[in-house]
Sequence to fold (882 residues):
Amino acid sequence: MTSRTEPETEGRVYNVGGQDWDEVVAAADEAGDRPGDERLIVNMGPQHPSTHGVLRLVLTLDAETVTELRPVIGYLHTGIEKNMEFRTWTQGVTFCTRMDYLSPLFNETAFCLATEQLLGITDRIPERATVIRVLMMELNRISSHLMAIATFGLELGATTVLLNGLREREKVLDLFELITGLRMNHAYIRPGGVSQDLPSGAIERIREFVGLMPALLGDMRKLLDANPVYLARTKNIAYLDLAGCMTLGVTGPVLRSTGLPWDLRKSQPYCGYETYEFDVPVQDTCDAYGRYLVRMDEMDQSLRIIAQCADRLAGHRQADNRVMVADAKIGWPAQLALGPDGLGNSPDHIKHIMGQSMEALIHHFKLVTEGFRVPAGQVYAAIESPRGELGCHAVSDGGTRPYRIHFRDPSFTNLQALPAMCEGGMVADVIAAVASTDPVMGGVDR
Amino acid sequence: MTSEQPPDQAAAPADEAAVAGRERLSEQVARTGMFGTETTGDTSGYGGLMIRRPPALSSPRPYGSYFDDLADELGTSLEQAGLAFGDAIERVVADRGELTFHVRREHLTTVAGRLRDDPALAFELCTGVSGVHYPADSGRELHAVYHLVSLTRNRRLRLEVSVPDSDPHVPTMVRVYPTCDWHERETWDFFGLIFDGHPALTRIEMPDDWKGHPQRKDYPLGGIPVEYRGATVPPPDERRAYE
Amino acid sequence: MGLEEKLPSGILLTTVEKVAGYARKSSVWPATFGLACCAMELISTGGPRHDLARFGMERASNTPRQADLMIVAGRVSQKMAPVLRQIYDQMAEPKWVISMGVCASSGGMFNNYAIVQGVDHIVPVDIYLPGCPPRPEMLLDSILKLHDKIQNMKLGVHREHQIEELERARLRRLPLVAGLGGQPGGSGQEVAR
Fold:
């Protein structure tokens, strides 16, 4: 085979004389000059349908292969941590709940556990409040995983999965609305307990939900588990083994898909998780398909926990149904009925503080204007959110406001692992990799 | 309380209190006044309050739970590396069920390396760096806090490094725990802590050309006054605060 | 088109307005700018229960070139603002903007250095939708209001008259708080789109 560059034609001209294509390509390689060896830099910009939010990926491509991937974040940075320094500890819940917006109750719990540890009241939180916290967290885990799988399907082009996932998720959001009043960003879990008890009829609705879900999850599995297109797009894609996970600090379903059953609910239990019966799902394929299976199994386990929570809550007698810590200097009055117009002040509470109890009035005044004081010190409270270890590093200087709050968000750390998962693979696999990591940009950027 | 012995062991407790009181008064003033800001006329007299910063704690032995074993194992491991425990670690605080080693910055990577590699310690996972700014703590304003997890031994540990504002350099942990890469970038972005040896210490959350380090205490919150129904509400950092 | 600019004011122009308005409002393609929590409610609005497909709007145009409506759903940070403006500029006329949620409308609860206090600092907004986040039903309501607005949009000469009237009204408007907005007509920077 000969080659020459002629000025009239584009690039080199190779004369092919009946060899195999492999030989042609090998000879061209050897010729040293590969005109196809161009690196293309592509920007999957912050506004993109498949990047799970405002994530910018700068890809260096060599044909279809990704040679370099640089994630650029910060497009959703809200300054939540600094804003919390100017609000009381109770008001901080309303801020931190909007960080990782797919799992707001987890953010609230991490912050409240840190606050309670600083206050030293961890063992005085009423049991009913703890059980409700577990119930809400597991419901949130289900809704977060459903959204993860739904958007995973959407990004791979399987819109049926999106609609199925959203339909199931609406059931969870209905439960949230019934119990907390809001579908998202609830500010329900507060330092000291939860803001209100379950309304009547909630346990029946929860049990109904637990009865319905296995069949619906089974439908989703029928769509995906053995689907050849899905398998082709997720098996052996986005490989990250245990060593990689440990070096890059990755936790959550990504870590459990490598074969290590590390789950903070089992290893370092909080909120009474050691008293519930559930398993930690583990796969050992280290790929996107393994993570999908881990998430589906986790939803089944969450349903088990929710059923146990519902049983416990139904079994509580009237006497032990406090949902806020008994210390009136810390506990915001829970169990407040709504005013006659459906909003705002409860007339009974006003009558109590204005007419019946001076202490209650003083407590109310101090709690609303100042908030409670938290002794100086620092604490790191970690919980297992749907994406991994969510930690809250809280520093108090003895005042009514946090001195410094830092959230160790799992998505922030898991996104760091993205280049390790994608470089060397194809462009289309980047989408699958991002979706299998399930980052939520609100948590990444805070 | 600090582990300082009163000069005369047989003296009455009043002397200990006096010593503690003198100690307290010699600490720097962290905050003045009760209401945080000075925008509105404050006739309460609480404006004259001077709140001093708390003294640097150091917990005495025994620390409790697994902390003593951990400190001993680390001491042995550091000796093997030729470093004395007291040289590397200036203070140990065991508080609220958590252990903190305050590490001197020059020995940070050695300590972290031993914590990771020694099989008796086995702290495989670092969950990241957090920065804290204590402007009242002159000479030690910026703190970098690392949280470590040992999966095999199911333990947690905190390492804290303090550096002054005038020389905000901390050696990078990226060689020991690569996960600290983005965390260190974030801490640089928000606090101005410079991690020496980091491969690419650039802004990560703020725009690349942002000036200033937003989460420092001397950086304003940056809000605007809000007009609502005929009145103006000042931004959160300029309102009267009850602290 | 250009046709509507040439027509004189009268029954012909109003008929063209009605037809064009009906066509435009029935074929809105959103360029969803889903940023944060509001994006989750936006996706839920496209889901099976609150069905955006009833308007034909479930087909979100991921390229701004083919989009009509930009729903800014979520908080816009300082880093994201230029991107927002660039996407808006890439959209072809006629285009509308719904700022969904309080963070997009006014900065919301995040009154700080990192968040743009209202996307109307960057792009002109047609419908402000409060809520944190607004329920899907609220978003549907805002879309219906936008459809009304699109249906009743005036063209050609009528539009020019309307713009003049709006400008005059804004210049006459008094400020809410005396002393704010120095000009006698209040904040004179407001101009009709």
